[in-house]
Design a protein that fits this description.
With 214 residues, the chain is an alpha/beta fold. The protein contains 7 helices and 12 strands. The strands form 3 sheets. Strands 1, 2, 3, 4, 6, 8, 11 and 12 form an 8-stranded mixed sheet that branches. Strands 5-7 form a two-stranded parallel ribbon. Strands 9-10 form a two-stranded antiparallel sheet. A hairpin with a 2-residue loop joins strand 9 and strand 10.
Amino acid sequence: MDWSDRLQACYTGAVYDVLRQHGHRASVLPRTVRPLDPSLKLAGPVFTIRGRPDLSLDDHETLLEWTGFLSRAPAGQVIVCQPQDDVRALMGELSAETLQTKGVLGYVVDGGCRDVEAILDREFPVFCRFTTPIDVVGAWKPEAYGEPIAIGNVTICNGDYLLGDRDGVIIIPGEIVSEVVEQVETVVGTESAVRSAIRAGEDPQKAYLKWGKF
């Protein structure tokens, strides 16, 4: 089952609370990975890519490799890229347009992005660490697809699920996604009850003791 739509209705804080209860504290990507457009949420199953700088390649070789990646990107999934690169943009206007047209849900990279205005205009969700005009041409290539990658202290595998919002990006292990999403929906409902009680003037400590949540 694809849990994307139900996860999209959640938020990362509630997901983190549930994952913490499951013992998965190493689930949040570094706070430097931020949305280009904080108004856009991103939720879905993960497809991983890992690459590295390679200055021995010419422009043609790198563009063949990059467009090969775009060709392989699967619809209905979130691309998560570990570029092992602190210099170049691993997403740009034409690439974002290609992925969005193919039905890819969004893109998360432990690295850079460029053509920000054009990507914002397309409303394609991108999370990245920095922006720069420098691209991958003649300097970078993918080396693995669908293999486990690490961003910060979080290991990310194909089949995991991702949720990104204004607060950050969180990874849900694929084997527990159904249980987590269902529990998060319960948490959100409980928080709504607490919120209503507080608005009605109930003491916050009494509300916490009553609902077990704050």
